[in-house]
Design a protein that fits this description.
By secondary structure, the protein is of the alpha/beta class. It has 16 helices and 10 strands. The chain folds into 3 domains: 2-127, no CATH class; 139-243, NAD(P)-binding Rossmann-like Domain (Rossmann fold, 3-Layer(aba) Sandwich); 266-456, no CATH class.
Length: 461
């Protein structure tokens, strides 16, 4: 895993993006070489623009999920992913053509050839079973512990996105420890922890234990390993890196206080606010026809009102009124009792089911963003009734209120629709990751992921 702007990205993914960008760059240069006479001056002008074009297009497709490991396991999903990437890449590519200094020497046929090459590279990446970089940056992992937490670590590392991390064994923390992993993979070594790590050529050690006192964790030996250049991670840091979440069951208040992240400041707030205003205005202009059509469909099926306003909890616990397109019947809560909204809620109208699926119902929240109650990206705002309940039942739930709630969020693009306390716990773990690591880069990643979710139906509301 590589950490880019506080966000973890699989190292193999970065290598794949770079490899495909280089492939597209070379292909563009070949096209220009075959159709134009490239003198020294022309080469000096074409090379940087061709490189910028290749990198931009591959980053765009990466953000749209083309390189998302484990996504699109069957032919239909893979085809949809490739078609979506090509459909969005082509107009962007032509937009870049207008910006780059190619117009002086590039004719239409040349641009068409470049677009065809782009489509070829995208299709090859989508359908070909290649593991560029697999085995090159593989890190050997030893897990301290053999119990349930060790099993959770092993399960997390079986995901294709973590193929560069290989578990070489489980080191028992002490005699009599519960063994829930494969006994054949338990490390039995006559010597200390450092000797065992050196024998197995370990790069990282994951401490899969929650108990911190009573000598269960070999702190002195772990320190020796760290001094020898072996990276040591606790459960919280491990799950943050490989799952993009901060696990509640392995979280301690001291980790929140003394660990990195959770930084706030006027500079970050100002940049985020400017980003919110500019992007919201652009989205409102682009979405106006869709919003008008959605309003007409709601009125035709179930009458007025088109919108509904509901009290939600925002930054610092402050209450505000959120505005959305009405997707449920007018008598959805006629008894006055708040209920969780479920994925197949029978209170949802036919039009409502469609606009919820493609997230059109969320568009009026852009006005909340302009007003300053919400941000484009952030934790989903909840109703006060549920916030009170969840704050009592879930540790650290209130931490999510130290940033503005969002129209979309890291939890929304990483976890399915939530309709229970257990779902709220899972989504909170992603919210905590966002609160800890939120940057403009992560906001951009979430927005692109949202586009992917809307276009493919992958994920949930």
């Amino acid at each position: 895993m590589l950490k880019l702007f506080n966000h973890y990205v699989p190292s193999n993914t970065v290598l794949q993006v770079l490899f495909d960008a280089l492939l597209l760059f070379v292909a563009v240069m070949v096209v220009f070489g075959l159709q134009s006479r490239l003198d020294a001056g022309l080469v000096a002008e074409v090379v940087p623009s061709a490189l910028a074009f290749a990198v931009t297009m591959m980053i765009l497709n990466g953000a749209l999920g083309l390189y998302r490991t484990g996504f699109g396991g069957n032919f239909r999903d893979t085809l949809m992913r490739v078609v979506m990437s090509i459909a969005l890449s082509i107009p962007v590519a032509y937009g870049i053509f207008r910006v780059l200094p190619w117009g002086e020497f590039a004719h239409d046929a040349m641009e068409i050839n470049v677009v065809v090459l782009l489509g070829f590279v995208v299709a090859v990446r989508g359908f070909a079973v290649r593991r560029v970089g697999a085995g090159v940056l593989v890190k050997r992992i030893m897990v301290i512990g053999t119990g349930a937490d060790a099993v959770a670590v092993e399960h997390a590392l079986t995901h294709p996105a973590n193929s560069s991390l290989q578990v070489v064994g489980f080191y028992p923390a002490g005699p009599g420890e519960d063994v829930r992993v494969d006994p054949k993979r338990v490390v039995h070594f006559d010597g200390n922890l450092l000797a065992a790590a050196n024998h197995l050529r370990v790069d990282e050690i994951i401490v899969a234990l929650k108990e911190r006192r009573g000598g269960v964790i070999p702190l002195r030996e772990l320190l020796d390993c760290k001094m020898a250049g072996i990276k040591v991670l606790d459960l919280s840091s491990f799950f943050e890196r490989v799952r993009g979440q901060v696990r509640i069951d392995s979280l301690r208040a001291s980790w929140l206080i003394y660990g990195e992240g959770f930084r706030q400041g006027w500079g970050r707030t100002l940049v985020k606010r400017v980003f919110d205003i500019v992007v919201s205005l652009i989205l409102l202009v682009l979405a106006t026809p869709v919003m008008i059509l959605a309003a007409l469909m709601i009125v035709i099926e179930d009458g007025a009102p088109v919108f509904y306003r509901q009290e939600r909890v925002g930054l610092g616990g402050r209450l505000f009124k959120v505005t959305k397109f009405r997707s449920m019947r007018r008598d959805a809560e006629r008894d006055g009792k708040p209920r969780w909204a479920a994925a197949n809620d029978d209170r949802v109208t036919r039009v409502g089911r469609f606009i919820r699926k493609v997230r059109i119902d969320e568009l009026p929240q852009l006005f909340n963003v302009l007003k300053g109650d919400m941000s484009l990206v952030g934790p989903r705002p909840e109703r006060p009734f549920f916030v009170d309940q969840l704050t009592r039942d879930i540790p650290f739930y209130a931490v999510r209120h130290c940033v503005k709630p969002g129209v979309t969020g890291w939890a929304q693009v990483r976890y399915q629709y939530g309709s229970s306390v257990d779902d709220a716990i899972n989504k909170l773990q992603y919210d905590l990751y966002y609160v800890k690591n939120h940057t403009l880069f992560l906001d951009t990643v979430v927005l692109f992921e949202t586009v992917r979710v809307v276009l493919t139906g992958d994920g949930a509301h």
